[in-house]
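Repro:
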Amino acid sequence: MTVVKIMPCLDMKNGRVVKGIHFVDLKDAGDPVENAAFYQREGADELAMLDIAATLENRKTRLEWVKSVSSVIKIPLTVGGGISSLEDIDLLLAAGANNVSMNSAAVKRPDLVKEAVKKFGSARITVAVDARRNKVMPSGFELVVSGGTLPVGKDAIAWAKECEARGAGVILPTSMDGDGTQAGYDLEFTRAIADAVKVPVVASGGAGKLHDFFDAVKDGGASILLAASVFHYRILSIRQVKECLRGKGVSVLL
């Protein structure tokens, strides 16, 4: 049985954790180091840290943020935002990241995925697939980049399959329609990705209630459950989520 993992996410801007709805209307959600240490104590299996403004501001991920967060945790840390070269990945891994998540740069130059996998190994390379509904696309989901601001006219499910073919070890889909809403994961989108690839899929965007996490496993086919708002604002604890999942027969690490 697949062990399902819980992954809190630190969306970063100006050195602080922030959270918005549909990637806008950002509100402060605390200090990243304090949050990281808290989530490890709470029982998080992994941690994500996304520099959400890096691509929009045409800069690299702030290495000092990665160093400070990685210094207080032992669980795996996935870092994303502004990654556009093998050198960027090298620097992030040296700063304490265990894995990297690439998005816009991979869409712009798909060979980057293959090159990164060849140099660093599949397990270290996650590709984030941000999408929004568009009936023109074969799957009904259009790929968007630049922090969800720019549609690219490409089918999101086809792109996820292409990334897997290029060696990506994890696919992290986020629905622009659900991000930050606490209205539940976009199960249709998550399941479409999970059915299209064999690598682990991260459910992301919209978790608000305990049953959302179970639905992401049962109906969405996800094996890693990423959430931000519900954990940052202490609406739910990681232990509550894990106990709920275990009570429903899902294998988790307690």
